[in-house]
Amino acid sequence: MTALDARTDPATTLRFPEGFRWGTATAAYQIEGAAAEDGRTPSIWDTFSRTPGKVRNGDTGDIAADHYHRLDEDVALMRRLGVTDYRFSIAWPRVQPTGRGPAVRKGLDFYRRLADSLLEAGIRPVATLYHWDLPQELEDAGGWPHRETAHRFAEYAGIMADALGDRVATWTTLNEPWCAAFLGYGNGVHAPGRTDDLAALRAAHHLNLAHGLGARALRGALPASAEVSLTLNLHAVRALTQAPEDLDAARRIDAVGNRIFLDPVFHGRLPEDLVRDTAPVTDWAFVRDGDLEAAAAPIDSLGINYYSPSVVAAGSSESPSPWAGAERHVRFVPAPGPRTAMDWPVDADGLHELLIRLRDELPGVPLVITENGAAYDDYADPSGNVKDPERVAYLHAHLAAVHRALEDGADVRGYFLWSLLDNFEWAYGYSKRFGIVHVDFATQRRTLKDSARWYAEVIARGGLAEE
Ligand code: IFM
């Protein structure tokens, strides 16, 4: 009998292993609000969201879901759902406002309170150090394209490990460094909004370095039992056809979308084809001796955020682009079939493909789905219910894909649903709702959507029932 057969509830057709972690995920800037309270200073997202035309409707994270003041209510919601783990991020400018020097006690206290309240509710806190809210002062000093930022990050990691290491056992250095580098510095749709391919590639390298130095700082301050990881939004990229030009388009996106992080972090090297492809932009002389070894600091698991796959063919795409020049050789082909409110294709097979690839390429590395979910145009009906059958279908299909990958031998340890709450969806502001809990942003009233009740049942039975 495998671990997958271990449970006995007859209504459950797809059982997950005993000990599988069932979580929800959020990020600080998207939910906390309290942007100028208790010593917090602006991050690049405060600045960006205040820049006219950058975020839909001029929305900002000033108030967001007001989680900073509603922590107890939100933890109580999670307790009701029965989640085993909660993945949150720490706002760097809340705890170390200038990105250097000593920490602010009130900022640390907020996260201590959050961790304590989770532990009291029997929920394991999973902390991410960087989910895109760089202190503005560090951007003013050069941001991620500037090497020093990686060293600042390592100092911040050490501070947080000292402050929370007695309560938080699972740590993630960075969330989706691809977005931070290429959306932030490449096509500029995210903060800080720069459009410079060289800056994007430098940022990617310094994020890898920050991850490695941060992991080392965490290990230096945490008990040996602590888990250290990194979360990547790996691109499930497919070639439109098996023609060599289309395969080459997929290779280019894989290099600058995936292997730019996977190779340094797991193998201590840069992909040769990436270096070749990006020769018109840089000779990578900013990579110093020892950097790649530092980036490859051992980690305990890899977090994967998955939403949808990309299909590519030979051709070209628009500029400015987040692909550091690959856009001159690659056309993105719209996939047929259903789409979410983000206009992202719904395709759970892409998640299975990704997990199987990682099973084969990174044997021995435990995998955790640190984000998966979907935005739909939800609303509370007159009787106060929020019916979101498309989200339930999306989640069911993706969890079934995870289960299939488990059966196929992928070592997947947990699943974190994105997201607990409706929130500030970056450049889309509040126009996109990813939560399984509806937030009325005028009143901050929280209402469980049908998907939240469905997820609670999945957790309670340890798997999926027949659709
Ligand atoms: O909301 C984001 C999150 O911050 C990072 N991953 C993707 C989510 C949906 O766009």
Quick gist of this model?
The protein has 467 residues and is α/β, with parallel strands linked by helices.
What does this structure look like?
- With 467 residues, the chain is α/β, with parallel strands linked by helices.
- It has one domain (3-465): TIM Barrel (Alpha-Beta Barrel), CATH 3.20.20.80.
- The chain is built from 15 helices and 15 strands.
- Strands 2-3-4-5-6-8-11-12 form an 8-stranded parallel beta barrel, surrounded by 5 helices. Strands 7-9-10 form a 3-stranded mixed beta sheet, with helices on one face.
- Strand 13 (437-440) and strand 14 (445-448) form a beta hairpin.
- The radius of gyration is 21 Å and the shape is globular.
- Mean pLDDT is 97; it is low at 1-7.
- Bound molecules: 5-hydroxymethyl-3,4-dihydroxypiperidine (IFM).
CATH arch. level architecture: Alpha-Beta Barrel
Average pLDDT, to the nearest integer?
A: 97
The dominant shape is globular
Q: Separation of termini?
A: 25 Å
Which small compounds were modeled alongside the protein? 5-hydroxymethyl-3,4-dihydroxypiperidine
The sequence of SSEs as H and E is: EEHHHEHHEHHEHHEEHHHEEEHEHEEEHE
Specify the structural class: alpha/beta
How many H/I helical runs? 15
How many distinct beta strands? 15
Cα radius of gyration in angstroms: 21 Å
CATH domain fold name: TIM Barrel
Q: Regions with pLDDT < 50 over 5+ consecutive residues?
A: 1-7
CATH superfamily: Glycosidases
Overall tally of structural domains? 1
CATH level 1 class label: Alpha Beta
| Order of adjacent strands in the largest pleated sheet | 2-3-4-5-6-8-11-12
Q: What proportion strand? A: 15-25%
The description of the largest β-sheet is: 8 strands, parallel, barrel
Helix content: 25-40%
